[in-house]
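Hi L.,

As promised, IclR family transcriptional regulator:
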Amino acid sequence: MNAQPQRTKGVDSARRALQILLQFSENTPELTVENLLEDHDISVPSAYRYISLLREMDLIEERDKGRFVLSPQVLRLARAAEASFDYRTKVQPILNRLAEETGETSLYLRRVNDSAVCLAIADSDHPISISFQPGNLMPLHSGAAAKILLSELSPAKLAQYFQRVGPALSKPARAALEKDLDAIGTTGYAESAGEVDQGVWASAAAIHVRDRLVGAVTVVAPGYRLSEDNRASIALAVRAAARDLEDVLGQLS
């Protein structure tokens, strides 16, 4: 049995504020004062003081009256955590090889909350302008690699995601996306054309480590310069790169 860490003395208020912050999760994306009173042995004035402190530090914000959510500031912390993972020295050579083999730009993406984030990229000899750049937060419902990341969500979490994105997706678009996600979840592969950047085609494959989806690798290219044979060969190369990444990331985890 692991020993429990010794409690630091004299920081009870800070501990309580952090405990409140850590209550937020994918299953609990928002909290109310009533939630805090139910889960913590504190008074109403104390609950509001902790909320005021977290708002002052730009860690939470009030979405609707009395309903609090994490602020975008937390995504910066998430990106900092991602940057601390010692995988780039392993990932980058595979992306470089994929870009050289296909002649097109390759990327490695992971999911951070409701966004897809590019963590590493290898440009081709003739790079193109794309929205997915390292550190950019992109929607999960557009683009081959992003949809792979979205496909890992359970039906309940997917419904919550759709609720959060709201009018960004029409009912027909949502129905088409759900159909795509079913196929993507089965095959671990996706293609897209012009979903994020006009005229850009993408091929992406899921990366699993110990049966857990840890990211997606993708190749993007202008659709006009790709024949059917080009697309087929890129798809094979992307799948092979995904297997290589599974091997190296598995050694790091």
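The chain has two domains: 12-71, 77-252.

Thanks again for sending the construct details.

K.
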